Amino acid sequence: MASERQGRSLIITSNRAPSDWYPLFPNPVVAESLLDRLINTSHQVIMNGPSYRPNKRPKNPVDKPPTT
Question: Is the pTM of this model over 0.85?
Answer without folding.
Answer: no
